[in-house]
Structures are given as structure tokens and as C-alpha cells.
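re: ur msg from earlier - yeah i can do the flavin-adenine dinucleotide complex, just paste it... oh wait u already did. ok heres what im feeding in:
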Amino acid sequence: MNAQHTGSTGSTAAHRVVILGAGYAGMAAAVQLAARTKGRQDVQVTLVNGSDRFTERLRLHMTATGQEVAELSIPELLDGTGAQLVRGWVTAVDAEARTVRIDDDRELPYDTLVYGLGSVADTTRVPGADDHAYGLSGAQDAELLADRLGQLRGGTVVVVGTGLTGVESAAEIAEQRPDLDVVLVGRTEPGATMNAKAGTYLRGALDRLRVTVRSGADVVKVQPDAVELAGGERIAADVVLWTGGARVSPLAAAAGLEVDDRGRVVTDAALRSVSHPDVWAIGDAAAIRQGYGVMHGTCQGGMPTGVHAALSIDRLLRGKEPRPFRFGYYHTPVSLGRADAVVQFTHPDDSPRRISLTGRTAMRYKETVTASPWPTYGRMKKVPASGAFWPTGGRFTRKAAR
Ligand SMILES: Cc1cc2nc3c(=O)[nH]c(=O)nc-3n(C[C@H](O)[C@H](O)[C@H](O)COP(=O)(O)OP(=O)(O)OC[C@H]3O[C@@H](n4cnc5c(N)ncnc54)[C@H](O)[C@@H]3O)c2cc1C
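and the outut:
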């Protein structure tokens, strides 16, 4: 990879790295790369995001229940790094011409692209979900839900999806709004991926918060005032929150990048697109194979993917080969309202270990984890290596990824 390329006038121009999406992964990539290339005139780092505010997705259930969360300014964080934020909505990527279209009317050329557009709640799975259910994909969604919950004086909130986002949301709503009946509906039992002790604790906490759990239930339709289950039963709802599954932007597939059956960019071991080597994919938008399988979307794995892509691009710019990415999961922290939580420690393949934390200790652990990304980016500005380590998964990831 040449650090410089020849412009149309014959002059040499900087190598343009464009990073799409300022989520947990994209921010990590932008700050890490900007810090590593600081002062180099031959490298230009540009981050593109729909908003100039960083969304702490891990706190969206708090926003949705009207709790104040910090305003985190991306331009302020990037200040002094040399990286620029372009605020706008990416509407197309032309992987052959190597350009990105923003808000339909602007075009941004790149030499290297880092694709980190994340994921959103998949409200396309059943009829009516897109029209009648709220999601928790971004700050705007959470604010809309907060407005709606604020209008309710009693009533029923149905949370669809018994995964961790559904559990955290149901617990938060039940705790903040004891006047509402909260029903958590999904196929699996809440906490099913945890060990027996942690799972039992989690279900006990939902019970204490008076959340009604309907597991083994398949929601097949969302109506304006109810959800319908397979078999025809209706559960009346004043508000439906959809957390059942995630989907990614169709932009990568439309650009001709090789994607998996869920639309995620398929990467090689170094996190480069297998079809377009000048494109790197990170976070929820990437299908990253490890020895134990394809990674699933988390913040704990997303940030390392961003840092690794930055390190690899920096290596290439210095004439070195990128290294393979290795990551092993280590925990699943789940909040159960503001005063309780459960933390399941995991093996690198995300299967549960025997150790878990519960109660206030778990809550403090969870809060520390939730609060840590932003200060981590701040530290990386000055000391890039401070954000460049994570559990690599030992024997679980030693098997070649691809
Ligand atoms: C409510 C909730 C709770 C969660 N809790 C946890 C948790 O406790 N622990 C954990 O590890 N994970 C958790 N997750 C998952 C975690 O948030 C995601 O895995 C993580 O956000 C992925 O990071 P990312 O950078 O890939 O994408 P995102 O964080 O989704 O960031 C993508 C960014 O790209 C922007 N974007 C998208 N499309 C465009 C476009 N076309 N143009 C411009 N900008 C665009 C988005 O606005 C966003 O800023 C949770 C998710 C949710 C929704």
C-alpha cells in the first residue's frame, strides 16, 4: 500500500482513510489510526457518522426510560488527533470507483475504507413490527420511546426478545416505571446462555421487578395495540419494544462486497474484505471468523476489531504485513435496573464459565464496563498502545481463522 498517491494534477496527495460509522468500533479505529499516524502529512483520516454525538448503545435502555446520559461530542474527542469528522448519512459506497456517497449529494473519495456501520434492531422479521414497534438501535429511537413511555399513565409494555437487550430493557422499564405492567416475550428463557446460578439469579431479579416472562413464545405479528403469538394468542400492549435480532445496512452488499447470509462483510484473518482488499470491516457490520465460529456483535469484541484494523492499516502504510486478528470473549455483564446486575464470565467462545457475579458488585462491574469506552478513546489519543490489548482467546482462536 502506498502512503501517497498521485493526484489528477500530478502532485502527490495524502493516503485517504475513510472510516464509516462512529460506533464503538469506528471510534476505536479512528482514534487509534489518527494517533498512530499523527503528524504524518501523507495520511488523512476521516470519520463519517450520522451524528456528531457518540451514542453509548449500552445505555440506550436508560435513555428510553427518561434517564439523563452524558452528551459525548465526537469532534471534541477527535480534537488534536488530526482526524476529521464528516457528519452525514452514507447512502452508497462505490467500491470500484472508491468513493462514498453522503446524504445523496456529496462524494468522498478514499484509498482505504473501514466499514463500521454497525447494526440495527431487525424489525423486518414479522409483519407490523416496523410500523408499530419501537426499537433501541440509536439515540433517536430511545428518545422516541422515552416520549411515548412518558405519556403513559399505567398500561402494558411488551418487550419482544428474551436476549440480553430485552432483559436489560424490561428490567429498566419495570424499575423506573412501577405503574406499568412489563411483559417480556421470546422463544428462549431469559439468561439461557448463562450458567444455572447466574440464569436463576437473572430470572429471580425479573420476578422481583414484577416483569412477566413469556418464554417459549413466538411473536408472529405486531399490531398497533397488541402482539400476536404463533397459535393465535394476543397480548395487549400500549407499547411494543422490539429487541428480537439485529440486521445490518444493505450498503455493503449493494456495493458488491462479499457478504454473508446476514449482509455482514466477510473478512480475511486480518479483517480485510475478502473481495475488496482496500476495504476493512469491523464491529457488528463484519462477519469475522475465529476458531470457535463467526463473532457475534458486542462492544467487547467491536472495539478490538476497530483497533486491529487501525493497527493493520498503519502497518501497511509502513510497508509491513498486517497480522491476523484474534479475540476471545471474557464476560457478559447484564444490568437488572440501576441497583442490580449479573455478570457471567465466559470462555473465549462465549460459553459460560462457572464464575459469575451478582447484586451490587455486579452492578459496579457493569457500570465500569459501560463507562469505559469513552475514556479509553481519550487515553488512546495520547498513548495508542493503551487501547491495543484484549484477550486473544488462547487455544480457542489458535486454529487459523480462514
Ligand atoms: C440496547 C443495547 C444494549 C447493548 N448492550 C451491550 C452490552 O451490554 N455489552 C456489549 O458488549 N454489547 C452490547 N450491545 C451491542 C453493542 O452495542 C454493539 O455490538 C456495538 O454497538 C457494535 O458497535 P459498532 O461500532 O459495530 O456499531 P454501532 O455502535 O451500531 O455504530 C455504528 C455507527 O454507525 C452509524 N451509522 C449507521 N449507518 C450509517 C449510515 N448509513 N451513515 C452514517 N452513519 C451510520 C450509526 O449511527 C452509529 O453511530 C448492546 C446493543 C444495544 C442495542
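cool cool. The longest helix spans residues 299-317. ping me if u need the other ligands too
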